[in-house]
Inverse folding.
């Protein structure tokens, strides 16, 4: 192996990334080549020096600065004429469009030429069979209808009436009634999750000490009372979520005596 | 949008900058109405945006302006049903703006199925307004905001991108995706995945009962990820004196970190691989290892555990 070959592999060798054979060859060369040994020593010293540098925590103003610069770019972009922004967006793909356009033009020419040579088909009179259009797109009668149709999600299609089964939403056919039932349905979802977690806790509590079990039962009772007295809607959902998180921590990490809650 | 106009007119503290007449169209699949409204605070800036839309999607986009631009798209099977879809806008003098949607009912009108009607909202808001929004099965998206927020869905997807400030998200069965979030984060789901990308802040708490948590480029000082049945994959950077607890009941735990100082790792699992030559077995099935010199500075602490899954750790240089 020549010095050039060894020096190409020095960084990988120092990082321990070479396989056993590669490492042996480089090591063998370094034992006999003073010049390569000096290069290896210098590179190792540089690497160690870099690693010894203190870590710099970015100042809290860094992100504000980044945002300010991004905002400046956006402002500059907004001040450019629309045609220049459009041109800039399409410029990278223009060559491909040009090629595609040429191909399309050629295809249209061939088709036109062939259709001009073939006799026109007789019109079919009678029922047309074929796949039915089950869900045609709505037509927006406005100036920007094409754009609107392209951006619109598929229109909702009426679903057959289905009774709500606990956590799953039902389709009773009356949107007002279903909206009114949403909080109760969410509460059912949380209650089901809590039941599952309590069942798991029941399996795992054998590993806990007596005091842990007592703390767990007391905390669960406390959280149940919080749920019961919470106002309908978001406050009650928060209470359910506090219960879920407490149970998760108890089950997964045996943290039975800690208060639940996340950041807030 | 008639309800919006009425609400705005009643509160002189806000100025309606522009309201496009609703554009409606009908075809065999129903009626669609689009409208747009722009309001500007006459006095105090908009500081908080509260949106409840159980009938469709919500997207909030921050921008460098003071006005609130609201775009509404309603869909219903016929004009009567469309007229029952309401969007109400209530601006308060304290800087809070509340937007709610509903469908009017009553015995005198024919019932309409929930799946047949829809209201989607796109709101462009001043970046420094806090967002509190909830949807049911629709998608909830928040982009480019600077004052955090609280986002709730039942089964809809939550997507957050480029948001600063304290953020909490809750979902029952909709996936949560947070990227470029700068601030403390609390993400909780019951039966869906949590995806985190480029999250930095004081604290990151995420949990799922039946769902995977995946984190990339995570740089929060305190990290707490918990699943009951779901894998946790975390790639990030540990801050000096940071603290990280990554735990699952049945899922595998896989953590890969860039290190910026001494780290002490404690792990327990069905099978533990800490990638450290000096791992030591401890009582209770724990394995401990450390990277870097422990003298002088308080080390960062990592605790990883899975009762029934494997635990893997690696330092990424």
């Amino acid at each position: 192996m020549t010095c050039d070959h060894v020096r190409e592999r020095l960084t990988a060798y120092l990082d321990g990334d070479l396989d056993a054979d590669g490492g042996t060859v480089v090591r063998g060369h370094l034992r006999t080549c003073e010049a390569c040994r000096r290069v290896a020593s210098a590179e190792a010293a540089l690497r160690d020096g870099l690693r010894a540098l203190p870590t710099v925590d970015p100042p809290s103003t860094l992100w504000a600065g980044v945002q300010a610069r991004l905002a400046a770019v956006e402002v500059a972009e907004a001040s450019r004429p629309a045609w220049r922004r459009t041109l800039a967006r399409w410029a990278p793909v223009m060559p491909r469009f040009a090629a595609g356009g040429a191909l399309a033009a050629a295809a249209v020419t061939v088709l036109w030429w062939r259709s001009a040579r073939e006799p026109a088909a007789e019109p079919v009179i009678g029922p047309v069979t074929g796949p039915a259009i089950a869900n045609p797109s709505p037509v927006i009668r406005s100036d920007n209808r094409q754009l609107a149709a392209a951006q619109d999600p598929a229109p909702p299609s009426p679903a057959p009436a289905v009774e709500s089964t606990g956590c799953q939403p039902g389709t009773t056919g009356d949107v007002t009634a279903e909206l009114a039932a949403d909080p109760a349905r969410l509460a059912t979802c949380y209650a089901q999750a809590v039941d599952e977690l309590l069942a798991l806790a029941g399996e795992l509590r054998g590993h806990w000490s007596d005091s842990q079990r007592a703390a767990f039962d007391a905390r669960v009772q406390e959280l149940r009372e919080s749920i019961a007295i919470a106002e309908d809607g978001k406050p009650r959902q928060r209470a359910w979520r506090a219960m879920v998180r407490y149970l998760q921590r108890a089950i997964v990490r045996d943290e039975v005596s800690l208060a639940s809650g996340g950041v807030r | 949008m008639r309800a919006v106009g009425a609400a705005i007119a009643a509160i002189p503290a806000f100025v309606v900058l522009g309201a496009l007449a609703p554009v409606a169209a009908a075809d065999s699949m129903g009626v669609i109405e689009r409208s747009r409204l722009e309001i500007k605070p006459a006095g105090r800036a908009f500081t908080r945006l509260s949106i409840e839309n159980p009938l469709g999607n919500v997207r909030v986009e921050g921008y460098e302006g003071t006005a609130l631009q609201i775009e509404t798209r309603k869909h219903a099977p016929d004009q009567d049903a469309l007229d029952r879809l309401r969007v109400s806008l209530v601006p308060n003098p304290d800087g809070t703006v509340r937007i709610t949607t509903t469908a009017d009912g009553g015995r005198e009108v024919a019932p309409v199925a929930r799946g047949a009607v829809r209201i989607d909202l796109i709101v462009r808001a001043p970046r420094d307004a806090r967002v509190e929004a909830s949807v049911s099965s629709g998608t909830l998206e928040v982009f480019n905001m600077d004052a955090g927020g609280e986002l709730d869905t039942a089964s809809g997807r939550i997507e957050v991108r480029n948001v600063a400030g304290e953020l909490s998200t809750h979902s029952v069965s909709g996936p949560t995706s947070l990227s470029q979030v700068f601030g403390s984060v609390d993400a909780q789901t019951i039966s869906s995945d949590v995806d985190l990308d480029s999250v930095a802040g004081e604290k990151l708490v995420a949990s799922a009962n039946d769902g995977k948590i995946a984190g990339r480029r995570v740089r929060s000082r305190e990290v707490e990820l918990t699943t009951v049945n779901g894998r946790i994959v975390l790639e990030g950077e540990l801050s000096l004196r940071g603290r990280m607890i990554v735990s699952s009941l049945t899922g595998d735990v896989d953590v890969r970190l860039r290190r910026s100082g001494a780290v002490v790792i404690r792990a327990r699992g069905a099978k533990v691989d800490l990638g450290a030559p000096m791992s030591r077995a401890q009582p209770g099935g724990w394995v401990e290892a450390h990277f870097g010199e422990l003298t002088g500075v308080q080390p960062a602490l990592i605790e990883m555990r899975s009762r029934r899954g494997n635990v893997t750790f690696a330092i990424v240089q």
Notes: DSSP finds ten helices and no strands in chain A. Chain A touches chain B through 59 residues (CB under 8 Å). Confidence is low (pLDDT under 50) at residues 108-151, 258-264 of chain A.
